[in-house]
Amino acid sequence: MSSPVHGIPSSEVEVTNISSHGIWLLSDDTEYFLSYDDFPWFKDAPVGQILNVEESSPGHFHWPDLDVDLSKEIIEHPERYPLVSKAGGYAP
Q: Which of 25, 33, 64, 77 is the residue whose CA sits 20 to 30 A from 45?
């Protein structure tokens, strides 16, 4: 008798493009555009740090090198989550 093999499911997430206006993120056959106006943490980040993205749980994206965590909800509706300035900088 054998037991089924259980593993940790992982979603594939990928940065598909980086431009002068923002980045494109692909997850579950959906591509999202993250503009630098709404997500300024990526604007001056090195390419390698932008490409290093994980989907830690469905719809939750983490860039460990940048210490940035974003949900699909925030990406789809950044106007609902405005950046708040604290001491002259952006507060994620």
A: 77
pTM: predicted TM-score of the whole model, two decimal places: 0.77
Structure tokens at 75: 């990406």
Residue among 11, 89, 15, 83 nearest 49 (CA) = 15
Q: Please name the residue that has the structure tokens 């210490």.
A: 67
Which residue range forms the structural domain that includes residue 21?
13-84
Structure tokens at 21: 């206006």
Cross-strand pairs, 23:
18, 34
Q: List, for residues 32-81, the tens digit of each pLDDT value.
A: 999 999 999 999 999 999 999 999 999 999 999 999 999 999 999 999 99
User: How many domains would you assign to the chain?
Assistant: 1
